[in-house]
């Protein structure tokens, strides 16, 4: 038997090279059998298990996002409360301050803290009510902003005013020269009296008196009734000043009446200055 196997082995090898047929037989014996295919029910169970794993991961992610959102809400709420406390503290400090500059500074800090707190309250969905001073301050700023929007109209008005002054000055000088030329051929008793440099100087003297009356009148107010002067000065801003009350407290009809009154008084003041004499 051994002799026969050796002969068979020798016959399968030629020149020390394994015959391809024998090599294929060896490979077939070495290949393991493939795993049986999953049934449809097993595949469905496997897919369901994957879905449950994904759902669990999604639930964990939503829980983490909710926790992060709650932490952010808590942080904003704490910051909101701190800003409200800061605003209250600033107002209390401002009430104790005697220096006007420091008082205005603390009030401004309180307004800034209120604005930041209101912004956080909107993000948190809290019901808030705008403070009266902030609301009225924004109304005054909007009123001034609406006036500044008409810059083009102001430029046109100023240009027309300068043009009218130039035309009046041109005809004033040309008419004076024409009167002087006519007087040369007229007898003395028929000559006309033209305005000269003395008349022009009198005009500027009247304007000098007119505009000097304004600071003098304000100085009188500062001596006699300083609170009225502070109320009228445009660069002193408070809740009780002419600028704020003009735009916020007066009705449009009252503003028209007040404006016409000021214009009439200024025209009357200009007319009265023509009676001054050097």
From TrEMBL:
<keyword id="KW-0812">Transmembrane</keyword>
<protein>
    <submittedName>
        <fullName>Uncharacterized protein</fullName>
    </submittedName>
</protein>
<keyword id="KW-1133">Transmembrane helix</keyword>
<keyword id="KW-0472">Membrane</keyword>
<feature type="transmembrane region" description="Helical">
    <location>
        <begin position="217"/>
        <end position="236"/>
    </location>
</feature>
<feature type="transmembrane region" description="Helical">
    <location>
        <begin position="257"/>
        <end position="276"/>
    </location>
</feature>
<feature type="coiled-coil region">
    <location>
        <begin position="37"/>
        <end position="86"/>
    </location>
</feature>
<keyword id="KW-0175">Coiled coil</keyword>
<feature type="transmembrane region" description="Helical">
    <location>
        <begin position="152"/>
        <end position="172"/>
    </location>
</feature>
